[in-house]
């Protein structure tokens, strides 16, 4: 299996988990948090959008996230919750879907580019290849995708559709 196929498979599984998490969820429910010091679904999806942009930048494609959004959802940003400044869930969904489509198309057409040095310094270690950078970002994404299931359950309970 080619490296591009592996990345495409992993990214598709991440995207599937992302889509399953917000299916049927309203914006207000994306702001619900688990007990303790945890992130809400909105922050996680925004954070994933920021890192999808890092993937887009690494492959030389147009990015979607503004500097305001990077401040809201980037590494070290403040938690998002009820009453916080944040993007609407629908906006985050669009950014994630658009980024996924572009990256997946690139993966199917540019297998030889993985050994090139990344053209961006956005979340990249100096001298990192595109392949190394994508590997780091896809793994980072998978960690956060794993957090979404519990938040979906909290939202479904809030909507009266979850466990009773």
What would the keywords be for this entry?
164 residues, mainly alpha, Four Helix Bundle (Hemerythrin (Met), subunit A), 5 helices, globular
3D shape? globular
- Low-confidence sequence ranges: none
Summed up, the domain count is: 1
Radius of gyration: 16 Å
- CATH topology descriptor: Four Helix Bundle (Hemerythrin (Met), subunit A)
Structural class of the secondary structure composition?
mainly alpha
Q: Specify the CATH class.
A: Mainly Alpha
Distance between the termini: 45 Å
Number of helices: 5
Q: Please estimate the helix content.
A: 55-70%
Would you give an account of this structure?
Helix 1 runs antiparallel to helix 4 (89-109), helix 1 runs parallel beside helix 5 (130-158) and helix 2 packs antiparallel against helix 5. The protein has helices at residues 3-22, 41-58, 67-73, 89-109, 130-158. The protein is an all-alpha fold and 164 residues long. 37% of the residues are buried. The radius of gyration is 16 Å and the shape is globular. The mean pLDDT is 87. It has one domain (3-158): dinb family like domain (Four Helix Bundle (Hemerythrin (Met), subunit A)). The longest helix is centred in the C-terminal third of the chain and has 29 residues, at 130-158.
